[in-house]
Write a structure and sequence with these properties.
Chain B: This is ABC transporter ATP-binding protein. The complex is a heterodimer. Chain A is an all-alpha fold. Helix content of chain A is 77%, strand content 0%. In chain B, 37% of the residues lie in helices and 24% in strands. The chains are: A mainly alpha, B alpha/beta. The interface between A and B is medium-sized, with 21 and 29 residues.
Chain lengths: 319, 558
Amino acid sequence: MSPVLALILKRIGIGVVLILAISALLFLGVEALPGDFAQNFLGQAATPEAVANIRRELGLDQPVMLRYLDWLGGVVIGDFGESWANGSSVSEQLGKRLANTLFLAAVAAVFAVPISVGLGVLAVFYRNRLPDRIINILSLAAISMPEFFVGYLFIFFFALQFGIGDGPPIIPDPRASVWENVQLVFLPAMTLVVVVIAHMMRMTRAAILNIMESAYVETAELKGLSMLRIIWKHAAPNAVAPIINVVALNLAYLVVGVVVVEVIFAYPGMGQYFVDAVTVRDIPVVQACGIVFAAVYIILNMLADVGAILANPRLRHPK
Amino acid sequence: MSEAPGTGPDSAAATAPGTVLEVRDLHIGATVYPPNEPPRDIEIVHGVSFAIEKGKVLGLIGESGAGKSTIGLAALAYGRGGVRITGGEVWLHGENILALPKSGIRGVRGRRVTYVAQSAAAAFNPAHRLGDQVVEAALKHGLMSRREARERARMLFETLGLPDPDSFGRRFPHQVSGGQLQRAMTAMALCPAPDLIVFDEPTTALDVTTQIDVLAAIKRAIEETDVAAIYITHDLAVVAQISDDIMVLRHGNTVEYGPVQQMIEAPREAYTRELLSIRSDIKPQAEDQSGALLQLEGIDAAYGEVPVLFDVSMHLPKGQTLAVVGESGSGKSTTARVITGLLPPRAGTVSFKGEPLPPALSRRSKEQLRQIQMIYQMADTAMNPRQTVAEIIGRPLGFYFGLKGGERARRVAELLDQIEMGQGFADRYPAELSGGQKQRVCIARALAANPELILCDEPTSALDPLVAEGILKLLMELQAETRVSYLFITHDIATVRAISDSIAVMYMGRVVRFGPKDEVLSPPFDDYTDLLLKSVPEMKLGWLERALASRRMDSAGN
C-alpha cells in the first residue's frame, strides 16, 4: 500500500472514531440536561402516573447504556427515531431540512471561496499598497459585524428599500428550478458570504505572503518572471495546504453556524429545526441535529487533511 | 536608480570590446532597524569596480558580511531584503542595466544574467518538476520553443553529469540528492544561454567529496558554453580552481583584485595572505594514546528499524582530541547521540573512566551527565533566545553545583573571561551576538559543568574561516588549561589536521579507519580515506584536475 493511501485511511479512521466519541458525548450531555420532557409536555396535567406512562412509552425507564446503543444502532442505518413532540419521523424531517441548509451553504460557498482566495492573491500582489489596505480594512469591518446585524441590514436596505432579493420568510420550492431558488436565497447567502469571506481572505494572504519569503520565490524573481506568475505559479501551489484548511473550516461554519441567519430569514433549514427542538426539549431531534452538525464538521476537516496530504509533492511522489 | 546616467553610446564606448560585464563604482545601501533606536541608512558596499570578459570567471571572496552576494546580485539589478543599489553603474554588453525600467530589468534577469544559489534545495520550488523549472526562464522569455528548451535541458543534464538525463527532468526536487540539485540549478542557469551567470557559494553546503564533482561539472559547463561568470565563495582554495581573476572583499571594500596566479602565489595585501595562511599551524599529536577516558566497543545503533551504526569502536585518552570525520549520513552525529545516551545502542558498550555507562540517558546519574557536555553546529538554535548570556551560562552552575546569587555571578564572569569575552556580555541576548560569540557562549555553557569530555558536533562549520580559526584556538587553549577531552565531529580535513591527536574515519555507519593522526593520514589508504583526502581543496592551481585524475573511487550519489 502506498504511504499516501495509508495516511489517508488513517485519517479517515480517526474521523470515524471522533464521530463515535461525539455521539456518546452528545447523548450523555443531553441526558444531563435539567428538566424533563414528560413534565414539560404535560404541563398542568403532570400527575405522577401520567409522567411515568409517558416515560415508559418513550423508553426513558431503560438504562442509559441500553438507550444509547439502541439509538446508535438506528443512527448507523439512518434512523433517528421519532420526534417526541409530534411523533413524526426525525429522519424524514431532517432530510428536507439538511437539503435546504446545504443548498444555502453551497450557494454562499460558490461566491465566498473564489472571491476570498482571489482577494487574498490580489492583496499579496498589492502588498502594503492602497488596494491591500482597502481589502484589509473592509475584511476587518466584515469580520467585526455580527451576522444578525448584517442580515437585518441586508433585509432593510436590499429587500425593503431597493426591492433587490427576498426578505423573510424564505421557503425554497422543490418544484422551482435551481436558478430560481438561488435567486430566492440570495440575501441570506450574501449574509453568510460577508461573515466567512474575511477569515478566508486573510488566511490566504498570510499563507501566500509566508511563501513569498522563501528562496524559491527569489529564484523565480531572478528568472525575470512577472509578479502575477510568481504568485500564481510559484507561491500559490505551496500555500494550498493552509488555504484548504481555512476553506474547510469556513465551509463547516457555513453549515453549522447558519443557525442565526436561518432564524433571521425564517428559512426552513437545520438551524431553525434545531432551535425549535431545543425550546420544546424534543430530545431525538436535538440529538439528530447535533450529530449531523458534528459529522459535517469532522468530515470537512477530514477532507481538508486529505487535501493537504494530496497537495504535498513529497507524499504524492515518494523517493 | 534615477541618478544613474543614461545608456548613450558615448559612455558605452568606454567598455572594452569583449567585455560582458563592467561594474563601475558600485555603492549599495540598506536600512537597518536597531532595537530601541530610530531606523537609519547604512552603506554596505563602498564603490567596487570590476570587469569580466566572455568565457572568463571572476572569483569574489571574503568573509560573511563582506558584500559578496550583494555585489553578485547587483549584476541582476536585484537587492535582497531591504538592500538598495544606491550608486554606480552595471554595464552589460554596453547597456547600463541599473538605468532600465522594471520591465527592462525583467528582460535581463533569467535571460541575459542568471543566478545559482547556495542552497539549491531551498531555491527549487518543491511543487514543480525539475525539468519544468529548468526550462521556465527560456520559455517565458520566448527564447526557444518548448521542444528546443527540453532538448537543451537534456543536453545540459548530460554535460553536468546528472544520472539518466532523459528522465531526470521528470523528478521533483526532493527526489534527488543535494549534489544533483546543485548541478540541476547550474543547468537551470545555463538553459537560457545567458551572457553571465552568478554562482553564489554553489558548493558550500555540500560534502567535501560531493563538492569536488560539482565543482568539476560547473567548470566543464562554463568552458563548453563559453559563458562569463561571477563565482562567489569564502573558500580561496575553491575559487583558485575555477577563476581567471580574483577579487578579495572586506567590509564592502575591494582589498585586492588581480589574476588568479598572482593572488595565490604573490598576494600583496596582508588580509589576502591571512586568508591564504589559515590553519597553517598544526598541533603535534599526543605521544601516549594508550589510556581511555571514553571507549566505544562494538556499537550497533538504529533509528526505529533503520540500522545506522555497525560495529563502531574507538577510544579517546584523557586530555586529548579525537576527530570523527566523514560525510553527512555517515553516522558521526549518531555516534555522539549514543555517547550522550539520547540514542541507546542495540549492541555494544560505552565506557567512561573504565566504567560502562548506562545506555539510556534516563538511567544515568547527575554526576555522569555532568562529565559529558556538548557543543553544537548551530549555536543559534542551541540557546534559548529569551535568556541572557548570564542565564544561559548560569543554568548548569545552578543545576550541577547549586550555585546561586553572587557566587553564580562570579563564576559566570570567570567563564566569560575564559572564552575571551568581557563581562559586559552577561546581560546580552543571543540575538545581539555575532556567530563566533554565540559559539563561545555555548562553549562557556559546556565548561560551566566542569566536564571531562566535550562532544563538539561541527562547532565551526557554520562560521567564517577566520572566526572558526579563533574558536579552534580557544578550544585548544582550554584543553591545555583544564585537560578536558574533545570528541570533535567534522567533515573538514584541514580542521582535523590542525587539532586532533587521533582520528576515526566513518563511512556509511562504519569506522573504516581509526588510529593516531599521523598514522591515519599516511598512506597506504583505504579507498574511502583516499577519496576524502583527495577531495579537500588545496590552494594550488590545477589541483582539481589532478585530484580527479588520481582518485580511486567515485563519491556517493554518483
